[in-house]
Amino acid sequence: MDKRFPILEWLPKYSKEDALGDFVAGLTVGLTVIPQSLAYASIAHLPPQYGLYTSFLGCIFYIFLGSCKDIPFGPTAMVALLTFESIQNKGPEYAIVLSFLSGTIQLLMGIFKFGFIIDFISGPVASGFTSAVALVILTSQVKDLLGIPTSGSVFIHTWSSIFGNIHHTNLWDAILGVICIACLLLLRIGSKFSLSTVDDGLKRSKIQILGNRFFWFIATSRNAILLLICGYIGFCFFNNGLVPFSLIGSVPAGMPSFKMPPFSFEKVVGNATVSVTFGEIVADLGSGIIVVPLLSLLENTAICKAFADGKTINPSQEFLAIGVCNIANSFVQAFPASGSLSRSAIQHSSGSRTPMCGLYAGGMVILALLFFTPYFYYIPKATLAAVIIAAVIFMVEVRVIRPMWRSKKKDLILGVTTFIACLVFPIEKGIALGITINFIFIFHQVARPKISIERLKTGQGLEYLMITPDRCLIFPSVEYVKNLVNKQSNKQKIPVVIDCTHIYGTDYTAACAVECLTASFSSKNQLLIFYNLKPSVGAVFEGVDPKDLEVAYDEQGLHHALENKTMQSP
Amino acid sequence: MDKRFPILEWLPKYSKEDALGDFVAGLTVGLTVIPQSLAYASIAHLPPQYGLYTSFLGCIFYIFLGSCKDIPFGPTAMVALLTFESIQNKGPEYAIVLSFLSGTIQLLMGIFKFGFIIDFISGPVASGFTSAVALVILTSQVKDLLGIPTSGSVFIHTWSSIFGNIHHTNLWDAILGVICIACLLLLRIGSKFSLSTVDDGLKRSKIQILGNRFFWFIATSRNAILLLICGYIGFCFFNNGLVPFSLIGSVPAGMPSFKMPPFSFEKVVGNATVSVTFGEIVADLGSGIIVVPLLSLLENTAICKAFADGKTINPSQEFLAIGVCNIANSFVQAFPASGSLSRSAIQHSSGSRTPMCGLYAGGMVILALLFFTPYFYYIPKATLAAVIIAAVIFMVEVRVIRPMWRSKKKDLILGVTTFIACLVFPIEKGIALGITINFIFIFHQVARPKISIERLKTGQGLEYLMITPDRCLIFPSVEYVKNLVNKQSNKQKIPVVIDCTHIYGTDYTAACAVECLTASFSSKNQLLIFYNLKPSVGAVFEGVDPKDLEVAYDEQGLHHALENKTMQSP
């Protein structure tokens, strides 16, 4: 069986311990997903309720299809940013249709096993892109943190707009925001802290254990706690008739209705009603229809790898699962989503056992939609901005610079180039540039084999030239190798042997070049022998009927051929 | 020295024999270039004199910079077609600016040694493209052959238009055209024929030799002779007041004026005069500015290879030479040009010695411009169409199908796909599709190494798994290899050895995967050894500080490590 339904593997052995672990992890993730949903909706420039709409149905569908126990499906900062870049403030209808289309493309790629295309984004490009995304998102939140208007979605444009408006800063927003960020960062550090830091092998006292658990809980649900506190502060100010902060404002209560995605809809422009067709939506979304589904899988696959524990991961199955979740989500007015790295870490450390966690996290979002939306009104925008900023700054992968530098400097240059390109251009163009440069590396590697040239002697003292290319001979390298062989053979008029040990693949273009080589060697009466030719490669060469193709399969045969043939020729 | 002026190599040793050979070859090519110039201008949908303008200055400049003695620079069928696809009947000004821009790009690519990019067009793609170009050109001439109007520049559209108008066929044009094609084909066969076909080693009589030479001359200058005869027929009909054929019509006499290319110009539209700016011209030419210079080099490089006689060719020098010729040409109102394969064959077989031939061919075109243009009036269009058709049908490379099939079937499929794509879409899109598919082949080859897996034993009978990838380990293949190693090691819980003999290159992404592998093997207490790791590859792996990286450099060391380490572990 093809493991299209991973649930069939784990559900039959589902135990009480699994249930408890999943319940605790699910609730903990739920405490994070609610504030993140509200916040990430603002990255996509959508009203906050759309974040909640994105957070319950998909993560329940993921239980059935997901292959990784630590993926909490829902809105993520990166996908929200990509969504914003695609829909460009054109309204939630576009986001919902984008979720449907992204899901469809992901589903198709999953069914046709196109998961491998994630492999074509190398580590350095992914790091550069992710780091830039983090800075772009951080930048997009500065406006709420300072309470100023900004424009532009490209990093450098937004910053120039921020500096242009910085004198409009609302001090209350700014102070609250900075305090919130400080609290979140401190609690984050605290989450890695325990009351008894010495690993002394002794049993800890009950108080220590309880204290550690309590501390861990506070640190893990820091976003929710912060929202509660700041919401209360907002509420108090509001009740006293003072609103020094920008607040979220009213969030519609209740569940979204279950209905078809708005493939065409009517829009009010001025006094007129304009109908927007499906074709127009698709045209407006443009390349986003490809970029969003592919790059959101980048984040998702990174999570799978991070928590795989040596298990084989199957990106195609993840494509399929995420695709179905996004399609389902589009029926409850959600925007595109994926697995979220920040919540994954929480889910993993909270002791998740199976994807069942999604049930409890989704359930909490449903409860929030049904009962808590009136209270969201008072949450200051600066607090949400702080939640986002405190989450994304750790996406900037400063830690990879040193190993990349020591491992392969070219890769570091590539990573930095991608990073800068994503800040200077729209991010999808930035990563496209990075991928293109990386492809050029591959082409260069294919086109320019390393070729060693040695002057050797047979037992009888006959000198010959041994030319050894180190990789397969296919069209981009054919002319290079041919020219080099010609040049060397013209310089030193002795028999030439091409060592084909490392030539494991070839093509018609190479066969033609070989034919050309044998003909020109034959015409200048110089001996050319192909040594250790693999049968599959030899068959391709034979296909073009090269005249005088001399082949030798071991050293003895080679020396024999060299000595015999040289004797025959004048 | 960089050989930027190949003339410095051959001119100092220029002999009387060289001069005679070049003179004869130059005149023979001149007899071909005049009818071809008139004809190829019609492929570009330009008035015939522009073909002549394209044929004299560039081929004189080529003498100084060209690296191949058999290249007669001038209009070619393929480049004329590409020019037409770019300028789309917008007028000769566009063609002249295109010649300047193409030349500039070729010059820059020559200076910066970008000649290697021709290597990225494989044999099958080039064959499919060239064959399709031949059919598209042939199709474009059917209108003149039948004397009917047609529309559409894409193969399939033109043919549907031909069948729609076939009842308008002018019988006189059609009959003359078919007779002309038949004569040209017969004479072409004749050019490979000699009076004494038996190679009997005896001296031939003087009459035989003279006869052979005469026959060869007639066959080689068949285009010019046909034009002369048909022009005379047209003249006779015209003088009797009968014009049953479409004639070329008046060709302006005299040399073109030497002036700047029309970077901006005024155009009469209806009653108004509209000025066209350089920006508008560039925008209208669009991708043609890249496609024309690159693909015209494809033809040129193919000629160099065909007549290289085992010498190393330097595509960058050809880029540079052709670039300068096109720039110079744009000052005498020429359209883009390149080396022509059909005239190359004539130049080669006429005994050319150096690029000096261009002087005589160019001289003849100048004479034609000065004195013969009035006579061109009477040449029937069907004769020119016949000249083109008889030249291009031999560009359809049917002969490569059999060797391609026997050599590598995937390449044949690629060639046929490119061929069909060039007929169904505009040709530049067709070849782009072919190149893209070919690149996917490369990516697949890089991403999916062949990996052999063996179960071996040390001297002491310890079993281990030997995993040998056959090519370098870079990012697209990293996950594949890692997953395979994980899977195999989980299946058979014995020490695993990765044989790195063929891994000659790697990158940061691979290093991270290796780190991940060593960590997971270490955590499951299984031994993992990298065998025969090249120092350069090892250094990249070490960069990310993998824990427990075990390395062995020879069989003895490997067995020693296997036995020792296995003893240590529980």
TrEMBL record, chains A, B:
Keyword presence, Membrane: yes
Protein name: SLC26A/SulP transporter domain-containing protein
UniProt GO BP: transmembrane transport
Transmembrane segments: 20-44, 94-114, 120-138, 145-164, 170-187, 357-377, 383-401, 413-443
Membrane topology: Multi-pass membrane protein
Location(s), subcellular: Membrane
GO cellular component assignments: membrane
